[in-house]
Every structure is written in C-alpha cells, then in structure tokens.
Amino acid sequence: MAVRVRFAPSPTGALHIGGIRTALYNYLFARHYGGAFILRIEDTDQSRHVPGAEEYVIEALKWVGLIPDEGVGFGGDYGPYRQSERKAIYQQYARQLVERGKAYYAFDTLEELESIRQREAHFAYNHQTRKQLRNSLTMQPEEVEDLLQRGAPYVIRLLVEPEQDVRIQDLIRGEVAFQGSELDDKVLLKADGMPTYHLANIVDDYLMRITHVIRGEEWLSSTAHHVLLYRAFGWENAMPQFAHLPLILRPEGQGKLSKRDGARFGIPVFPLSWKGATPEDSFLGFREAGFLPQAVLNFLALLGWHPGGEQEVFSLEEMTRLFSLEHISKGGARFDYDKAKWFNQRYIMATDNAVLAQYIRPLAEAKGYRADQPYLEQVAALMKERVSLLPDFVEEGYYLFEPVRAYDDESIRKKWNPALQPVLEAIADLMPGIQPFDAPTLEAAVKALLQERQIKPGEVLPLLRLALVGTMKGPAVFDTAALLGPAETAERLRRGMAYFLQCHEMAAR
After folding, report:
1. How far, in Å, CA of 347 to CA of 255, rounded?
2. Does 374 map to a domain?
3. Three-state DSSP state, 39
4. Most Cβ neighbours (<10 Å): which of 43, 138, 265, 426?
5. CB neighbours of 161 closer than 8 A, spacing ≥ 6?
C-alpha cells in the first residue's frame, strides 16, 4: 500500500513553529517513500475557530515549501478535506457504532455533569459511573426513543469496557500500553451534531486511507481511544501505524515551548507573523524576523531528528533521502534560537546575490534607500558573510545606503594621528581621477600614494574604514569604497577627518 500521511492542524490561531516541524516530518516521510502528503483542516470545534487561521496555515506551508499533494486549497480525490464540511459523514458513523452496541446516547446536561464534578474532584464518565447517569445504557429503550423523537440534546459516547486493554507499537517510542479500566467513555458526537477530534480523525484517516499518523506526543494519551475506535468499527486491518514526536522545549531546556515564550524571550516561535486582536495575541514570525525558509526547515528538522555523522546543513532533497522515523529521538529537543540564526547565516552565505537582492529590496524600500537590483546585488556580496538575518543587510549595513550615523570614538582615539591628515586629504583628492573605480584599482592607487609618502598601510587603512563606515567592523575597505563611488567616498573621507580632529581635540582638553 502506498504511503499516505496527513498534517491536520486546527484553525484556532497562528500555527506554532512546532506544527511546521510536524508537517515537515510528515512531508519527508511521504517523499522518502514516494507517497502522498495531505493537508486536512480539523475545524470541528467551531467555538474556537479564528478567522484567517486556515489561510495562515496554507501560507506558512507554501512559504517553507511543503506543498501538499491533496487537501484544502490543493484538491484531491478524498475530499472534502475541511472537517466542518463532513458533518453528515461523522453522524452516520457515530450512529453506526450505537447500532453495533459500541457506543451509546448520553442525555446528561452540562449542568448535571458540572454538579457531579464539583462534588467529585476526579470524576470521569466511565464503566463505573455511567451506570448512575442518564444514558441509553440505564434507560428503557422506549424512553430513549421518545427523547430522540422530541429532539432532546444528547451526545454519543464510546463504550469502553475495563477489560479492553490496548497495546501499540509506536514507531518512535516502541511498545506503549494502556489499561481499559483507566479509560473514560469519550464523547464522539457533540450535542451540536459536530464530532469530537477522536471520532473525526479516525473516520477521516480511514476514509482517506492514511497509512501512518505522525503527530506530537501530546496526542499519545488519546491513542488508546483511537485504537478502540478502529476495533469498534472493525477496521483493525486498516489501522495506521503511529509515531509520536518529541516535544520542542523552551530555550533553557525546561518545559514545552509555548507561544508566550516568544514574547518572553524576544524570539519568533511562529513561521509567519500573526496580528491578533490585542498586542498580547500578536506574534513575530520567522519570515518577518529575516529567516530564509530553507534555513527554518533545516533548523526544525534537527529538533529531534538526525541521520548520524557530523553534517548539519542539509538541503530538503538531502533530508528527504536520509529521513527515517528510526532516527527521531524520544526525548525533547531544546529550541536554540542562536542555532537557528547560525543556520540562517549559512544559508544566506550560500544564496546567490541576485536572489538575496530580491529579499533585500522591500527592506531597503521601506527605509527609503536605493533599491535597484545591480546595487543590491553588490550590497549582498559585501554583507552576506557578516549578517545572520535579512534585515541586517539594511540595519547593520546601513552605511551602504546613507552617511555614517555615529563613529567609534574609542577606535578613533587609538588610530588617529593629526600628522596623517594631509595623507587622508590626498587620498580624498585621488578619488575623482581613479578609472575604473573598482576595488583593485582603488587599492593600487592608494597604496602607491602611501608608498610614495613612506607611510605604512596599517597606519591609514583603519582610518579609511572608520571614515567610510564609522566602525572597525564591516566589509573590505576598498570594496566598500568601490560600491559607494568616488564622490561619496571622498565626501565621507573629508567628513570623517573633521570628526577625527574634533574627537582628538576633545580628548586633549
């Protein structure tokens, strides 16, 4: 049977970055075996539905390049892929379970159940308590039929007997066992006619021919009920294999990474930015923080998986070829944001300058900077080994777009010698006559002048850098000058000299 996996998020808000990791592992597994990757939207809980969340999921998958073969927005032969459009299907299968004696109607009101919970802190609707409650197991058939005919509110619950123990062979965790006596009678169909997650995902996985369920470990405890549902329907032979992924932990390594941790640590924990109703519900995304999608995928892939060896940078094609569930760890993986930036830096360095220019353009335009393609390609060439995030091109490299804002006074005090002023003035005077105005020609002209005046390059070149960019850091000085052009280079040298003199005079007082 061909491999078929699904990524099935709920549209209850922004998709957490852990959801993208789940989608990635499903995608890699499907592609490794030549199977299908399916997007299903699990929106049965309409009370938690957030407008725009479904579109956010699709945009996030497209941004990172995990394109589903089937699903909402992508078509396919097993739709509809939005659960709210499959309501009649779930009702049919829920009633089928009742007819088989595998489920039952429960007429208890929310108020009645809440009253019991207030009296009994550990109340569970199970094989022990259901005998005292209002359901089709304790009521006469005529009474049940009368309530159904009159449209009385009810839910359908799974009938779990205490001897129904469950053992599964999880593809990551090995054997996992559940005792039936500890399981409650889960609601399968709610009073509004919508299914719960338990019923909907089992019916959908069966009808969509899902072969493997790869999901977060928070769903492991629900797996017992899911296996019982497969048994109740008589679908054991079609039951998928399960694989429950390890948690993504907070940066300090303690506890599950949550959406609030992004604000607490000042880091993105969502693929794309999300604007909520309040600032507290609005979050920065990896895309808007300046990450390349390939870097995000590489970073996420290694949060729980590694094929072995020393290699850390993998293309999507390499990950697909090497991926296996056997190489996923059981323990949680720490969300190391500095490591994410390290990956991004590697991918920026490996990206073609023309492509980087496309990323830089909107950032430059937003600041009113020069943004033509040839110029931005040169900016990319100069800065790509010095930045970790895309905005760094226009923030750390602002001096490639506008005059120096501030000078490094400490470096000036160490490097400046008033006797060098005539030399810097002579270099500034050289600029208009240098042809072609490129780095090799510039370097040759400046060094010839220094040799003529018997001055070591080490005395002057740091001052040239300070004048051009304001700091001792940055790209090579002659490359920078070549990009700025003769007029701007000369102007910055003169403006820098004036500041150096002022700084020197203040230090001498």
Report:
1. 30
2. yes
3. strand
4. 43
5. 127, 180
What 3-state DSSP class applies to 295? helix
The rounded distance, in Å, linking the Cα atoms of 220 and 218 is 6
Same domain, 107 and 191: yes
Instruction: Return d(Cα 354, Cα 356) in angstroms, integer.
Output: 5
Answer yes or no: is 345 within a domain: no
Q: Are residues 96 and 76 in the same domain?
A: no
Secondary element (H or E) of residue 216: strand 212-216
CB 142 within 8 A of CB 165: no
- Of 245, 271, 288, the last residue of a domain is 245
Residue 103 near residue 158, CB atoms below 8 Å: yes
Respond yes or no on whether the N-terminal peptide bond of residue 80 is cis (omega within 30° of 0): yes
- 2: three-class secondary structure by DSSP: coil
Give pLDDT, residue 509.
66
How far from the centroid of its chain's Cα atoms is residue 220's Cα? 22
- Read off the CATH number of the domain in which 104 is found: 3.90.800.10
Last residue of a domain, one of 314, 339, 364: 339
Task: Summarize pLDDT for 47-71 with one digit per residue, the tens.
Answer: 888 999 999 999 999 999 999 999 9
**Does 346 fall in a domain?**
no
Q: How many CB atoms lie within 10 A of CB 294?
A: 20
Name the catalytic one among 190, 256, 259, 339. Answer: 259
Q: Report how far apart, in Å, the C-alpha atoms of 254 and of each of 154, 335, 337, 434, 500 are.
A: 42, 10, 15, 60, 50
Let me know if 259 is a catalytic residue.
Answer: yes
- The β-bridge relationship of strands 174-178 and 166-170 is antiparallel
Domain around 90: 86-245
Indicate whether 109 and 220 sit together in one domain. Answer: yes
Residue type, 251: P
Segments in the chain below pLDDT 50: none
Do residue 365 and residue 301 come from a single domain?
Answer: no
Q: Are residues 263 and 303 in the same domain?
A: yes
Rounded to whole angstroms, the Cα distance separating 317 from 431 reads 49
pLDDT of residue 149: 96
Q: Which two tokens stand for residue 205?
A: 């996985």
Co-location of 60 and 166 in the same domain: no
Torsion of CA 300, 304, 307, 308, to 10 degrees: 120
Are the C-beta atoms of residues 54 and 72 closer than 8 Å to each other? yes
User: Number of folded domains in the chain?
Assistant: 4
Handedness of CA 161, 165, 169, 170 (dihedral sign): positive
Q: What is the pLDDT of residue 281?
A: 85
| 192/207 same-domain check | yes
Q: Which helix (H) or strand (E) holds 99?
A: helix 87-99
Q: 278 and 160: one domain?
A: no
Give the per-residue pLDDT at 456. 95
The CATH number given to whatever domain includes residue 426 is 1.10.10.350
Tokens of 368: 């009113």
Residue with tokens 């369920």: 213
Please tell me the distance from the alpha carbon of residue 9 to that of residue 494, in angstroms, as a whole number: 60
